[in-house]
Each structure stands twice: as C-alpha cells, then as structure tokens.
Amino acid sequence: MGTPLESREAQAEAVVERLHEEYPDSAISLRYSNRLELLVAVVLSAQCTDERVNEKTKELFEKYQSAADYAEADEEQLAEDIYGITFHNNKAGYLKNAGQIMVEEYDGEVPDSMSGLTDLPGVGRKTANVVLQHGHDIVEGIVVDTHVQRLSRRLGITEAETPPKIEEDLMPVVPEDEWQQFTHLLIDHGRAVCTARNPSCDECILADICPSAKMDSDVDLASGEAW
Ligand code: SF4
Fold first, then answer.
1. How far apart, in whole angstroms, are the C-alpha atoms of residue 220 and residue 67?
2. What is the overall mean pLDDT for the chain?
3. Which of 96, 106, 166, 203 has its CA 20 to 30 A from that of 121?
4. Which residue has the higher pLDDT, 103 or 215?
5. pLDDT digits (tens, 9 = 90+) for 79-92
6. Are residues 39 and 132 in the same domain?
7. At 220, phi and psi to the nearest 5?
8. Could you tell me the CATH number of the domain that includes residue 132?
9. What does the entry list as the binding residues for [4Fe-4S] cluster (predicted)?
10. How much distance in Å is there from the Cα of 173 to the middle of ligand 1?
11. pLDDT digit string, tens, across residues 6-36
12. Counting atoms of ligand 1 from 1, which one is nearest the CA of 2?
C-alpha cells in the first residue's frame, strides 16, 4: 500500500489511467459558448469557484457579447455586473483593458498564441493554456491549478512547488495526448476525494500507489507537513 511506481512516468500514466476509469466524463466546468466567453470566464475564475463564476456569467454574457462591449464598458458598471466574484474591481479593469487590446490589435478576436494571450491583463500562463486548449484546440502545456498542484505533489509525480515549475516537471512525464485531460481528472479527484484539508484516503482508488496515503504515510507531501 502507498508505494509509488518505479518511475515518475509510470506513476503519472497509472494515475491518468485509473482516474479515466473513475471520471469518464471529466471536463471543464466553466460554462461558455465561444472563445470570448471562455476567456472572460477563466479570468473571472482566478481565486474564485467555477460555480460562482457560472452563476454570474449567465447574465454577464447576455449583456457583453463582443470584445468591443468590454472595451467600451463603464468600468464601475462592469465591476457591479461581476459583483460577488473575488477581486471584482480588479477583474473589471482587466476585462475592459483586455477588450481594448483585442479590439485594437486582434480585430476583436481572442488571440490564439501563448504570447498574445499572456499580454492581456489578468491572463497568466494558466489562463492562456485553458483558452488555447478549449478555445483554439492548441495544447501547449498543462494547466496547473490548485488541485493539480496539490495532487501531483501528494502522488509523488513532482516535488516542485510553484505552478510554472510543476508544469515543467509534468510535461515530460504525462503522455502528451493526456495533457488537457490530466488537469480535469486531477480537479475531479481533488474535489471528490483528495480534498485539501481532509482527503478520504480510505476510499481512494490511488491509495496503493500514493506515497501520501494516510494509512501508510505520516506526511502530506503536498505541504510537507504531518497529516
Ligand atoms: S486521497 Fe489520499 S491516497 Fe488518494 S491521492 Fe489523495 S492523499 Fe493520496
């Protein structure tokens, strides 16, 4: 019990295979119907739950339908329209500025490159990866959110601590055709079983290969601290 496989590659592959069986319908949980909506939803989701974002975007997407709508928006009104989302004032500024850049430099379209996306305010590599993967079908990397960060460390797939370093570590060991799904699978498992504060190791399908499993290990490798 709790013994990881002989290599990080083997460990990553086993994790992906088992989680595919457990979560066959794993997918992005943000709601959107086009690239602009996707970009907006992902920007809003930083440090906020997807559920809350989905609640707010229902009306938001009816009111703001183009990059120009954001560019021309009254910033205070936009902040009010996303009230309830974490950091709504900052995010209103990001959306307005991003709208302006898209209108001026991209003919109102969402950029389709990592550099074009990360030049937009409020868009880091994680957000850009999500938009590239789901909006443009371009898979350039692995989205490392808080669940991916925690689970890949707990499972001994990486010892890196920051999302950029974790992504660098994961890319050579996760099969490339699974880069996109890897994120969704770990998010599903992180929400359902391997939660931040109190993971249900006794019900976990990865317990026999997880070096953090509470039955065998005194230490949560995600934090490096005792359970
Ligand atoms: S729930 Fe426990 S056994 Fe399963 S992956 Fe998380 S820490 Fe490991």
1. 44
2. 96
3. 166
4. 103
5. 999 999 999 999 99
6. yes
7. -85, 110
8. 1.10.340.30
9. 194, 201, 204, 210
10. 20
11. 999 999 999 999 999 999 999 999 999 999 9
12. 3
State the closest ligand 1 atom to the C-alpha of 214, by its place in the atom list counted from 1: 2
In angstroms, the CA 44 to CA 79 distance is 11
84 neighbors 56 (Cβ within 8 angstroms) = yes
How far is Cα 93 from Cα 187, in angstroms, rounded to an integer?
Answer: 28
> Given ligand 1 and candidates 202, 206, 208, 209, which is best to mutate, with the most ligand atoms within 8 Å of its CB?
206
Clarify whether residues 56 and 16 are in a common domain.
Answer: no
pLDDT of residue 66: 98
Residue 210 and residue 170 in one domain: yes
Q: Residue 201, annotated ligand binder?
A: yes
Q: Is 189 within 8 Å of 23 (Cβ atoms)?
A: yes
DSSP character string of 58-124: HHHHHH--SHHHHHTS-HHHHHHHTBTBTTHHHHHHHHHHHHHHHHHHHTTSPP-SHHHHHTSTT--
Q: Do 103 and 160 belong together in one domain?
A: no
What is the extent of the structural domain holding 170? 8-26+143-226
Q: pLDDT confidence of 1, banded at 50, 70, 90? A: low
Distance CA 158, CA 22 (A): 22
Ligand 1 centroid to Cα of residue 103, in Å, is 46
Q: Which residues line ligand 1 (CB under 6 A)?
A: 154-155, 193-194, 199-201, 204, 206-207, 210, 212-213
pTM: 0.90
